[in-house]
Amino acid sequence: MNLLVTCEHGGNEVPREYRGLFRGAERALESHRGWDPGALELAERIAEELGVPLVAATVSRLVVDLNRSLSNRAVLSEWTRRLDGAGRTRLMARYYGPHREAVERLVRRLGRRGRAVHIAVHSFTPVLRGARRDADIGLLYDPTRGPERELCGAWRAALGGLRVRMNYPYRGTSDGLTSALRRRHGVRRYAGIELEVNQRLVRGPGWTRVQMAIVGSLRRVRESGAVPPERPCP
Ligand SMILES: [Zn+2]
Per residue in 102-149, pLDDT tens? Predict the structure, then answer.
């Protein structure tokens, strides 16, 4: 399995040049709206333990959301929508383009050796608008893509002990980096999975144990050959 790991919401940094826009926005930046707590730590652990490449960003999603398409209004927030056209172009060139292009290059490179299997690591808030979310882990994928479906089935089985739900709390086909990459890369060259972890676990005492369980499960899935790699192009 030609794995790569990414983290789009790894931090809540606001580059100096945009700090003026975010005066009074500290609470939003600290909250789940500003970043995915725990996601970067987990992404780094997976990459390190499994010896696979990682592309990660720590700019706040309220500055620019790297997991949204340029055509999606939510790529900017109520704070950065105040930028004028030139300001927006500069923001995209500095923080959005480099991340998306680095992932694209890696997918192309790994895809030449077979199928690139992309794990995008995220975390979700345990309570959203009063509704409690009961899963520990969400695996998001496109149900019409066989290798993604098979891989997530095998991964869920390997994650025994954790409450895993498929395409929860979001649909894997919603706008995001994996959806964008699916449009450019066929099923033989690309499989994109979003791993969503409940932030309740991130704040709990067993967080390190949970991370190792996730790493171990992915290692077992990789070794089991549950999803045979496509043969490289001749
Ligand atoms: Zn996220």
Answer: 999 999 999 998 999 999 999 999 988 888 888 999 999 999 999 999
Taking the centre of ligand 1 as the mean of its atom positions, its distance from the CA of residue 222, in whole angstroms, is: 24
Question: For the chain, which residues score pLDDT lower than 50?
Answer: 233-234
DSSP state of 126: S
Distance 227 CA to ligand 1 centre (A): 25
Residue 230 lies in a domain: no
Q: Is residue 229 part of a domain?
A: no
Q: What is the pTM of this model?
A: 0.95
Q: What's the rounded Cα separation, in Å, for the pair 107 and 113? A: 10
**How far apart (Å, rounded) are the C-alpha atoms in residues 220 and 29?**
36
Q: Which residues surround ligand 1, an ion (CB under 5 A)?
A: 9, 36, 122
For residue 15, give the CATH number of its domain: 3.40.630.40
Share of the chain above pLDDT 70, in %: 96
Measure 25 CA to ligand 1 centroid, in angstroms.
19
Distance 224 CA to ligand 1 centre (A): 28
Tell me, yes or no, whether 88 lies in a domain.
yes
> How far is ligand 1, taken at its centre, from the CA of residue 216, in Å?
22
Alpha carbons 20 and 102: distance in angstroms, whole number: 29
Q: What is the pLDDT of residues 144-163, one digit of tens each?
A: 999 999 999 999 999 988 99
What is the whole-number distance in angstroms between the Cα of residue 226 and the centre of ligand 1? 26
Measured between alpha carbons, how far apart are the two ends of the chain, in Å?
Answer: 18
